[in-house]
Amino acid sequence: MTGHSLIYAIAGALMVGIGLRALFLQAHLLTKIIAANVTASGTFLVLVGVAPFNGGAHPDPVPQAMVLTGIVISVSITAYALALLRRLYDVTGATDLPEERRK
Q1: CA 45 → CA 38, 39, 60, 78, distances in Å?
Q2: Most buried residue among 21, 25, 60, 85 by CB atoms closer than 10 A?
Q3: 5 CB-contact burial (10 Å; exposed 0-12 / middle 13-18 / buried 19+)
Q4: What are the tens digits of pLDDT across the range 47-102?
Q5: Torsion of Cα atoms, 37 then 41 then 47 then 53, to 10°
Q6: What DSSP character marks residue 57?
Q7: What are the b/e assignments for 11-49, b being 16+ CB within 10 Å?
Q8: What are the helix (H) ranges across the chain?
């Protein structure tokens, strides 16, 4: 692993930690959606950072293909979650989880 790859892997691990912390501790659903995106982005960064090099200057294309596929899925899931959040707001007028569910 080169120096740049190590930086990407560490930054990705930090992003995953920050995202998971916000995902579990925040009550606002929009914040949870953003935290899930930060966690996914950190995961993608770790995958790119730890991708093995094939003897040249280019990393293995398989992790890159997995990251591209994950980005597409992440964008789709985010759009769906935002649509559900909008529907929840239209029906209930709330964007937070009820107090009794957070315990």
Answers
A1: 10, 10, 14, 18
A2: 85
A3: middle
A4: 888 887 766 677 778 888 999 999 999 999 999 999 999 999 999 888 887 765 55
A5: 160
A6: S
A7: ebeebbeebeebbeebeebeebbbbbbbbbbbbbbbbbb
A8: 3-25, 29-49, 61-92
